[in-house]
Q: What sequence folds into this?
């Protein structure tokens, strides 16, 4: 039932209260673009438009790419335009070009983060969430469709432990049981007047890269992680990256066990969701999200620069979902907040709470 007018005090108190629960994190492209806009779809579109003409294409491939170019010229987004591509060799070429372009930007950012010249905007929030994990549940679950390694670099720089399910040496394979054991440490507890050694989790992030990653490859009939290859892979190593377009559903099924299975279970067992820079444009994830936020009325919070029609549709139906985003007024960097239990949007002038740095300071403190 709609309540009275939403005020800034009510909104801030409700959003701070959201963090009394442990959220499942979704990191979207906006979190990478906050560090470098070249991680966004417009830059990738330009890279593909420039790169494909230099490839040798057969008649079928050339026809499919012509459809893509026509769709882009008519104002279609890259995701929709790539629906025209079904040829497997052309898809592999698109994956290789995508990987090479993202890797070039990622390499620059890796050096900047390692040298302390840049800071991934969400790392302070991540550190606070990990530090405050409850003693009985020391794993912070995080999912991203991004290929880049910004979260991993930032966690290493900040000393935040994480795992992505891969275990081994230089060439690693998925083994969640092994990485779970590696994240446990011995502790002495008093039990029946005697001290007993138990193994408890270190506080850490469990990361699910559901569209693959720059350092994921298909090699020797297995999905592996090899960071030595990610910026300049050998020809025999096939990148595991789910590129935009209808074909990604077929590719996801191929790699479901490695990329999605554990994430599916973690989402199913979560009841609180935090979306950072996430545009809700991954339709294969929408089933999970809508069921959780709408059907099950789970608590949710979206912090993103720009709202869009997909987000607005979910906001209209999800009673426990809040959004913090930029004002809709052209040229304004002010904040607006919405929850459908209140009539209309709340404007918060003079603040950029959609910026994750300012948001973290205002909501969670220094």
A:
């Amino acid at each position: 039932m709609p309540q009275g007018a939403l005020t800034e005090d009510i909104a801030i108190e409700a959003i701070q209260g959201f963090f009394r629960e442990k959220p499942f994190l979704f990191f979207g492209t906006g979190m990478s673009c906050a560090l470098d806009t070249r991680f966004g779809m417009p830059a990738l579109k330009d890279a593909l438009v420039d790169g494909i003409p230099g490839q040798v294409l057969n008649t079928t491939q050339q026809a499919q790419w012509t459809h893509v170019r026509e769709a882009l010229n008519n104002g279609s987004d890259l995701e929709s335009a790539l629906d025209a591509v079904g040829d497997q060799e052309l898809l592999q070429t698109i994956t290789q070009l995508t990987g090479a372009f993202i890797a070039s930007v990622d390499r620059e950012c890796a050096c900047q983060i390692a040298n302390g010249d840049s800071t991934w905007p969400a790392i302070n929030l991540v550190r606070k969430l990990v530090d405050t994990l409850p003693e009985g549940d020391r794993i912070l679950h995080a999912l991203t469709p991004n290929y880049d390694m910004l979260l991993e670099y930032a966690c290493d720089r900040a000393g935040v432990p994480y795992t992505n399910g891969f275990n081994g040496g230089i060439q690693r394979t998925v083994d969640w049981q092994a990485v779970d054991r590696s994240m446990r440490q011995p502790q002495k507890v008093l039990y029946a007047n005697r001290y007993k050694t138990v193994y408890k989790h270190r506080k850490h992030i469990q990361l699910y890269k559901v569209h693959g990653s720059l350092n994921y490859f298909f090699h020797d009939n297995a999905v592996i992680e090899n960071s030595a290859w990610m910026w300049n892979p050998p020809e025999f190593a096939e990148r595991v990256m789910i590129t935009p377009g209808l074909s990604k559903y077929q590719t996801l099924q191929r790699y479901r066990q490695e990329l999605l299975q554990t994430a599916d279970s973690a989402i199913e067992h979560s009841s609180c969701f935090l979306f950072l820079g996430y545009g809700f444009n991954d339709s294969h994830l929408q089933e999970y999200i809508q069921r959780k936020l709408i059907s099950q009325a789970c608590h949710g919070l979206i912090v993103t620069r720009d709202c869009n029609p997909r987000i607005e549709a979910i906001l209209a139906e999800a009673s426990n979902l809040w959004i913090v985003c930029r004002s809709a007024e052209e040229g304004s960097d002010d904040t607006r907040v919405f929850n459908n239990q209140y009539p209309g949007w709340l404007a918060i002038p003079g603040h950029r709470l959609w910026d994750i740095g300012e948001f973290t300071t205002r909501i969670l403190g220094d």
Observations:
- Residues 8 and 348 are 7 Å apart (CA to CA).
- The two ends are 35 Å apart (CA to CA).
